[in-house]
Amino acid sequence: MGKLVHGVGINDADYVVTVHEQYRHVDGKLKLKQVWMCPFYQTWKGMLERGYSVNYKLKFPTYKDVTVCEEWLLFSTFKSWMEKQEWEGLQLDKDLLVKGNKVYRPEACVFVSGQVNSFMLDCGASKGNYKIGVSWNKQNGKFMARCNNPFNSEQEYLGYFTDEEDAHQAWFDKKIEHAYTLAALQVDERVAKALIDYYKFYGTTPENFP
Questions:
Q1: Residue 50 CB: number of other CB atoms within 10 A?
Q2: Minimal CA–CA distance to 120: which of 145, 107, 101, 144?
Q3: What pTM was estimated for this model as a whole?
Q4: What 3-state DSSP class applies to 104?
Q5: CA 92 to CA 113: how far, in whole Å?
Q6: For residue 11, what are the CA distances in angstroms to 4, 55, 67, 75?
Q7: Does residue 77 contact residue 61 with C-beta atoms inside 8 Å?
Q8: Distance (Å, whole) CA 60 – CA 46
Q9: Where is 37: in which H helix or E strand?
Q10: pLDDT tens per residue, range 148-188
Q11: Which pLDDT score is estimated for 205?
Q12: Are 143 and 161 in contact (CB under 8 A)?
């Protein structure tokens, strides 16, 4: 058996998963550069990195407790699952279908667009000293509400408020609006339902957002 991938993964592929080409560096030495990687292997390797790379977890603390289920530590098993999914041009997600999930596993994972992924990441973004979507505007002496627009990746200005809760509610209402619009564009019904359910569940208590 060869070297384990990120210390845990077993690459049992019966084909070459990466292709390198030789080139001459400016210092005259011959070196190799990667020109292709199997998309199944690339996804699997990235998943293992998020689950077991110490450096990755230090850089992204939200992945501190994330792991991968035992069956997916074997590349061929993960590949067999991925081949049955709609995955091209999409990203592997572990916690949209199962909120708060920390284990990459077949029952919880789904492939989503970068648009959906960014939209959900914004839900758990750093709140700083105020509730999510809210910042303090010193010049006006009021709370300002903003929300990331998933369709153009820009921050939408939602207004100034004297009360932090009102500013947070404005952010929340806009997120619900975007969630329904984004859900209508999804091909995978599980993803569409999860987008809406996430907000319906918190609909009366937005302060419970992560």
A1: 20
A2: 101
A3: 0.85
A4: strand
A5: 9
A6: 7, 21, 17, 5
A7: no
A8: 14
A9: strand 30-37
A10: 999 998 999 999 999 999 999 999 999 999 999 999 999 99
A11: 45
A12: yes
pLDDT digits (tens, 9 = 90+) for 32-91: 999 999 999 999 999 999 999 999 999 999 999 999 999 999 999 999 999 999 999 999
Residue 148 pairs in a beta bridge with 155
170 and 157 in contact (C-beta within 8 Å)?
no
Q: What residue spans of the chain are helical by DSSP H?
A: 39-52, 54-59, 75-82, 114-121, 164-183, 189-201
Residues in the chain: 210
Instruction: Copy the structure tokens of residue 60.
Output: 């992204």
**Structural domains of the chain, with CATH:** 1-112 (no CATH), 113-210 (3.30.730.10)
Calpha distance 50→39 (Å, rounded):
17
Tokens describing residue 81: 């699952």
